[in-house]
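By way of example, what follows is a protein record of this kind.
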Amino acid sequence: MATASGPTAGGPTGSEGPGLGLRAELRTPRSAAVAGIAFALILGTVIVLFRAAGPGADDGLAWLDVPSRRSAVQTALNLVPFAGIAFLWFIGVIRARLGEREDKLFATVFLGSGLLFVVTLFVGSAAIAAVLTVGVGPGGLAPSTVAVVEQLGMGLLATFGSRMAAVFVISVTSVGMRTRLVPRWMTGLGYGVALVLLLSPPVTRWSQMLFPAWVFVLSVYFLIASPHARDAKSDLSGQIRPFKGAG
């Protein structure tokens, strides 16, 4: 009697099932939510530690002489790589959900701004780490040199990082609006956060917290809405409306 060699009805073969199931699970909105929440909490902690410890503050390099402040900065620097990893995972899951029909314009801006944000985060943190390692005093660099490196790091984090975060928020919000991935109130929130991050001067010390706060709110929404998304018959990629230029 002949036996069926193909997959059983309603599921993949036994050898492919676990792998395919894991890959599908890693692409769900819940995965994006978990990665986004992890990123938001880690980056928020990094910003708070940086701002509390005082790199780039009005007291100059005085934070280098206070052990507790040096320890806080070191803790923040140790957390930065994990924030970058979580953010890259967050980007990857969203791109996977968009699928082959992702709009090329927004997809390019979305991916580019996200990667540039991670680059500025890492390079700026590396500059602060150099200040913390070398320091001033006997065997160290001149205070003026250390101050330049510190301002370079904080400039990358506070100015260029914030601008790239703003572009990222704009692109994600635009895609979310076009695909109906997010509700209208979150669309307005996203554009408002992006406007503040894009136009606020670097001296607005706590405005950077808006980015992890926005990612946290978006991720919580994904987490709450993911059961409904699984019940929907159409995938996110099938909801995307192609971008049509003028004419």
In short: Residues 1-16, 229-247 have pLDDT under 50 and may be disordered. The longest helix spans residues 143-179. Residues 28-230 form one domain. The chain has one domain: 28-230.
